[in-house]
Automatic annotation (TrEMBL):
Gene3D superfamilies: 2.60.40.3710, 2.60.40.3780, L,D-transpeptidase catalytic domain-like. This is L,D-TPase catalytic domain-containing protein. Keywords: Acyltransferase, Cell shape, Cell wall biogenesis/degradation, Peptidoglycan synthesis, Signal, Transferase. CDD domains: YkuD_like. Residues 386-398 have a biased composition (Pro residues). The keyword Acyltransferase applies. Residues 1-22 form the signal peptide. GO terms for cellular component: extracellular region. Residues 238-357 form the L,D-TPase catalytic domain. Pfam families: Big_10, YkuD. GO terms for biological process: cell wall organization; peptidoglycan-protein cross-linking; regulation of cell shape. SUPFAM superfamilies: L,D-transpeptidase catalytic domain-like. The lineage of its organism: Bacteria, Bacillati, Actinomycetota, Actinomycetes, Micromonosporales.
Length: 418
């Protein structure tokens, strides 16, 4: 039985022009001392623009200077908080604008000469949209502690068509502290988009995510459904390496082998996938129900950790303990003894990397959070926006021994396994 959660999230940390409608409100160039020209400033939406989407933002283009002040107010005089884009090309309201409201933006730019230019524009947002919203899900919750391989994932139903991905990606924002820039990459059918850096997150990193999609026009017939935010931290470095040849799982923490555990993987008719995947959920107790499949069964399991949407888990399987370390007998899952599965639950975090090698089939793109199953160069090709040329892999740094592990998984419906 396949679990299909779908979500939507939007963010961008690469240079991007803001969404804006209409022509620019701009200044006239004024003469200044040689080499110290008066700044030129253009602002969008243009003065008097109507039917601006509620996802609208203030676009700015500056020559011979930089934006030094932005003040946005609504038609009742209340201040609207906004955040600048990293490249300075626009200011994005911290909350989605309200429908059928009038807003005024006053932008000031300061030139090298010290002279300033201020431009004001007033615009009106469109009525509440009657278009159907694309359902989005963000697989990054707030106030959690995740593993170092945790990709920020947004899922969409229906998938985002190629021609709309640039606009969606412009509205996905990720900030990390300490800074560790990355990029977004789309799964081929547009059902998911992942964000990661060239290398694993450093333990102790704080990640702030915003998917500002509410009211965003997506194609001609749909709009984004919600504006979501989440802030969480990265815990200790843990990874699992599972080798079909030896039928052993190596549990590695902070670069050191903690323990090797015997496993039983998928039998030839239902093989386990080989590839790099990420722990998606953790359940002390769940039920696998494959009613309606070619090999139906219903079984209760303990200490289950999801790896794929297709139903591959690591879990306790006392019924196969005699086969673990010797023979593959599962329906695609990684079987552990009850004691080993319980011990492992205390070590792992959602977002930890799991590498399986030597099985009969390869992991399919998008079957789980497959952001690490390709090289960085291949991953970056999936971005709908240009990736900065300087964004290259860096040497892996030693984990912070003081980082805190833990975290709670997202609740999820019962799923298949074996």
């Amino acid at each position: 039985m396949e679990l299909r959660g779908r979500l939507a999230l939007l963010a961008v940390t690469v240079a991007a022009a803001p969404l804006a409608l209409g022509a620019c409100t701009s200044d006239r160039k004024e003469a200044g001392p040689a080499g110290r020209a008066t700044p030129e400033l253009a602002v969008t939406p243009a003065e008097g623009t109507r039917d601006v989407p509620i996802s609208g933002e203030i676009g700015t283009v500056v020559k011979h200077g930089r934006v030094t002040a932005v003040r946005i107010t609504d038609d009742k005089g209340a201040t609207v908080d906004a955040e600048p884009r990293e490249d300075g090309s626009g200011w994005v309201p911290s909350k989605t604008l309200q429908p059928k409201r009038t807003y005024t933006a006053e932008v000031t730019a300061t030139g090298d000469s010290g002279k300033t230019v201020t431009r004001k524009t007033t615009f009106t947002t469109q009525p509440k949209s009657s278009k159907q919203a694309i359902t989005s899900t963000m697989y990054f919750a707030g106030n959690r502690t995740y593993g170092t391989a945790m990709p920020v994932t947004v899922a969409f139903d229906p998938p985002i068509p190629k021609e709309a991905r640039t606009d969606v990606q412009r509205r996905l924002f990720v900030k990390t502290d300490p800074p560790q820039p990355g990029t977004w990459s789309w799964v081929g059918d547009g059902s998911q988009v992942y964000y990661r850096a060239p290398d694993f997150w450093r333990p102790g990193t704080t990640i702030n995510v915003r998917a500002a999609l509410e009211g965003l026009p997506i194609g001609k017939e749909r709009v984004g459904d919600a504006d979501r935010r989440a802030t969480s931290k990265i815990g200790r470095q843990v990874e699992l390496e599972i080798d079909n040849a030896s039928k052993q799982m190596s549990v590695i923490q902070d670069g050191k082998l903690l323990k090797k555990l015997p496993v039983s993987l998928g039998k030839p008719s239902t093989p386990t996938s080989s590839g790099k995947m990420v722990i998606m959920e953790k359940h002390d107790f769940t039920t696998f129900d494959t009613t309606g499949s070619a090999d139906p069964y219903v079984v209760d399991v303990e200490d289950a950790q999801r790896l794929t949407w297709g139903g591959e888990f690591i879990h306790g399987a006392p019924w196969s303990e005699g086969d673990q370390g010797y023979t593959n007998v599962s329906h695609g899952c990684t079987n552990l003894s009850a004691a080993n599965a319980d011990w492992l639950m205390g070590i792992t975090q959602v977002g930890d990397l799991v590498t399986v090698k030597g099985t009969e089939v390869k992991l399919d793109e998008g079957n789980g959070w497959t952001a690490w199953n390709v090289s960085w160069d291949e991953f970056a090709k999936g971005s709908a926006l240009p990736v900065p040329p300087g964004l290259k892999p860096t040497p892996t740094q030693a984990p912070d021994p003081g980082a805190v592990a833990g975290g709670s998984p997202e609740p999820a419906p019962s799923a298949s396994g074996g």
